[in-house]
Amino acid sequence: MNNFLPKAAGMSIAAILLLATACTNNRGTVERPLITAANTNNFSIEKIELNDSATVLHGVIHFQPKYWVRIAKTSVIKADGKDYAATGIDGMDFDEQVWMPDSGIIHFTMTFPAIPATAESIDFSEGTDDGWQLWGIDLTGKAGHNINTALIPADARKPMADGPLPEPKFTFDTTVVNIHMAGYRPEMGNQIGYVVNTMHGQYDAQQTLDSLGNTQIKVALSGPAQMFLYKIAPGRAMLSPGDTMDLYVDTHIKGLQNMAVRDNNDNLQPDDYKFYYSTGYYGNMDLKQYGMQFHSGNFGDYRMNGDQYTDYIINQYNVLKDSVDTSDSGQMNKEFNNISLQAQLIYAASNPFWVLAANYYAKYPDWNGKIPSDSINVKLSPENIKRIAALIDLNNPKLVMTDNAIDLAYTYDFWKEAGINSGIIEALNNYNRAYAIAERAEPTDDMLSELRKSYPSMADEVAAHNNTRKALIESLDQSMITPTPEVAPAKILDAIIAPHKGKVVMVDLWNTWCGPCRSAIAQNEPAKNKELSSDDIVWIYIADESSPMPKYISMIKEIRGIHYRLNEEQINTLRNQFEVDGIPYYILVDRNGKATGRPDLRDHSAFKKTLLDEVAK
């Protein structure tokens, strides 16, 4: 697998190799060969030497200085249907950790057997399921960049006629997306990943491709959404409820990106070449987006006060808006970009601390350290907020067409506290709160009646989701969840640990969506049968309702211990009591019932040693 880690952390980055094998061959040298498709931009081929005795790959790695890389010894090339294993390497050793120099570039060569003279292209594979791969590396010098365009129907390549940005449709219906991976080969794998940004949040999944690289995805929507594909090749499409559309993605996209990094050239893409094409209501909108660079480290100054920050973000908005308005792009693109800039201005206004945090960390690059409490003191006054609001049409429903419409919902209180009517943002806020309740299969009737007055499609979606979740949750075996004691929130932990006085209790605060939590549990679980196998240790796991019930039920079956599921008020009270700074978070209870917050036990070795020491007392 291609992993990358800082030198201090010692991360890994599996791999790279390649090239060809023998038969009477002697074709000389191929400089900067065209690469048809790839799953990486970090490794590429600068030159291939083809002769009667060997095939020599001149490889290059581009990556971050002070990170290390490793090239797998199992790397092979494929030519005319046959695999050829690497026979040697110069400039580094196989399976050796090599630290990236300050230049961020490493050159090396690898040797393979000679390949048949009839081979017109080769593939490279690291020889593992998750290793680096390059496909269709041209040996003829004749392949062109538009190699897959002919596979995409002319109707699908037709650009949408310019004009006003299409009005968003608000109706609750299923959208069908037929996906076609142009230039697909089975060697690329049969799974694509996709992300859908809806008005109630983001979710991602995987879909299986057929032998031709086709699949179908169905999404229930009550308003516009954006879909992004990843893995084999990136693609995107704007979705509309009830639409049936085709999304064509050219797998050559990753080949172009690979060569652009290799050649330090951003202009490899032909003028008439697109990475993806789509039909449907929003088919092939030509949208080139302008944006504020919030996370560049150069946006703003973390020492700004509210007035200075307001002046700064308004100026940034006006400069970008002027660029949009004076550009030679079409009416639709200009309208979309102006709406996108308004959405970005909303984000900048409602998240000043996090916007300026990027600037702070750019100057003091300790991303694991906390920002001192007196370093960022920006606070916007109601007058500041009103100046910003004057530039935004908060009633424009097209705001939901921009990236991550759910982020707009979270700004409702920000506008409300300043006495500003937030228009569609209020509806999005009501919709998201109702959707979260429906996720737990709790009653939403009171909230839906108000939402139905403005956006009945959103109310319909929430009601349908509530019914689906209710049926699913009722079908689950919840017997492993211990009922939460019926006491005041401040007394929850005392009531939970009371039956176990005289024993050592390890309380683990976690959630299903927390990757570090899952990793820690996976580390700790085997120890329960080994060094931490003791009747004097009680294992208690506390999650909250943000963990989806079906996932939660399936996971706790594999976690030995007592499981509690707290509501929002209960978990927030517990977090405040122990100043929880994130999860996983551990609370150690000694034999006398004294509970102490122990975030230091995120260190697995400290976790085990501390428990053993407590048991030995």
Automatic annotation (TrEMBL):
Keywords: Cytochrome c-type biogenesis, Disulfide bond, Redox-active center, Signal. Residues 1-22 form the signal peptide. It comes from the Bacteria. CDD domains: TlpA_like_family. Residues 478-617 form the Thioredoxin domain. Pfam families: Thioredoxin_8. It is found in: Cell envelope. PANTHER family: THIOL:DISULFIDE INTERCHANGE PROTEIN DSBE (PTHR42852:SF6). This is TlpA disulfide reductase family protein. It comes from Heminiphilus faecis.
